[in-house]
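S1.2 Input.
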Amino acid sequence: MSLRSEIEKIFDGKAFERPLFYTYKCGLRMELSEGGYYLDQFLTAHRKALEVCSHIFRQDEDMTVCFKFYGRPALISFLAKFRQLRDLDLFPFTEKEHWVEPDEREYEWEVEENSQEWVWHYLAFNASPELLTNALWLAFTSDFGPIRPRADAMVYLFNLNKEILVFPYDDRGMDIVGPNRPLLGELYNRFNHYLLDFDRKEMDASFSQS
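S1.3 Output.
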């Protein structure tokens, strides 16, 4: 089974919908950065995300990484972006999957000028959990222009064996969803102090008895 098919099957075709936490309806939303100078925000978000993700991606398990980015259909136009991925060992030369989906944003203000023919690109591959630090780096640098390397892509991290998806959507937060309720319950209890207060009531209703 392809990575794309496996992702769609496990997560009911909702893995790449946004906002993920509200779409999937069974998950956690973590609060990450804590204000201050942009470098402090970045480092705090990265530290917290790595702490949480280290309990999801064990060293003896595969981690599936998927980058989602927006642009023209020809993948070759993103060579510069891929150079940034290679700088952090996150662009494999073999055994990767690429697919595209049409841009389905509903409102004119969401669509960039002259972008009618642009699409969403997806690039997925399996990687060692040792690259977790690097993947989270790229996830959070999308919000901080001065920090390099960066690839301006959304980063999705899957443990397909455990049926868990981690989506660090920006420096402020990170969604964790999936059908593995026991693991989500463990994370809810262990990292309760990181949960986003705005959505705490919904998470308490799902996991407070875990």
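S1.4 Remarks. The helical segments are 3-10, 20-24, 38-53, 79-87, 132-141, 181-190, 200-207.
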